Amino acid sequence: MQPMQGEARSHMDKDTIRDLEQIKAAVSRIEARIGAEELTTWEMPVGTSEYPPAMWYCAQYHTYPSGANRHTGIDLNLDLAPWGDVDRHQPIYAIADGVVHEIGYSAGWLGVVVIRHEHEGQPLWARYAHLEKSVAVEVGEHVLPGRYIGRIGNYVSGRGGDHLHFDMALDPFGWAYYRTSWVRWIDPVPVLKAHLPEDEVDAMLRKGDQ
Predict the structure, then answer these.
(1) Are 172 and 166 in contact (CB under 8 A)?
(2) Chain segment 63-98, per-residue pLDDT in tens
(3) Which one is predicted more confidently, 91 or 32?
(4) Which of 167, 171, 206 is nearest to 188 (CA)?
(5) 33 is in which domain, residue-wise?
(6) Mean per-residue pLDDT, 21-45
(7) Distance of CA 45 to the CA centre of its chain
């Protein structure tokens, strides 16, 4: 049993180091914004990644070549090499002030949190998906920007590796919805850039690597 305990302790230490690195990065971003007088009440949902998103907004799912199904958001921190698990356990944060609308879990989605935010005076629903089953928020809870939600889960599959699926809509929707034509899905990237320094969003998206 001792080796297993040692492995668990080592894994926990690795997660702690990652969390500290995320906190240091967040502090650096805030300091840079203060220096540039670009204060914002929004935060990014996840840290930077060495890999660009595998699927952008409205990119067609590989499993539905007919085009009937569309990707409703973007996949962030998706690592495909060598085993797609580099970003597993990375912390996920609320992008803005809001209220937790729904929480769910399924084998296909893993953990999902939907939060009602506001953008330009209008309600906006954001989905944070493919998380570990145990999340750190509850339905009805009021969250602040940067509130820790949970961690990226084990989503290694035929479509790709562990990552955060992040999408937005102008209508409330069930946490497992993905092909509903009546939901007004919107591209998350322009929304994030409307509230955050563009260079920070590009760093998260690794746009320069496209």
Answers:
(1) no
(2) 444 445 678 888 887 665 555 666 778 889 999 999
(3) 91
(4) 167
(5) 1-39
(6) 65
(7) 5
Find the range with the poorest average confidence among 19-33, 44-58, 98-112: 19-33
- Rg (Cα) of the chain, in Å, rounded? 17
146 conformational bin, left if phi > 0, alpha if psi -120 to 50, beta if neither: left
Co-location of 32 and 122 in the same domain = no
Cβ-contact 54, 163 below 8 angstroms: yes
**Whose CA is closest to 87, among 122, 54, 56, 120?**
54
Q: Do residues 121 and 202 both lie within one domain?
A: yes
Question: Max alpha carbon distance in the chain (Å)?
Answer: 55
Task: Give the pLDDT confidence score for residue 34 in this predicted structure.
Answer: 55
118 shares its domain with 79? yes
Q: Model-level pTM greater than 0.90?
A: no
Number of domains comprising the chain: 2
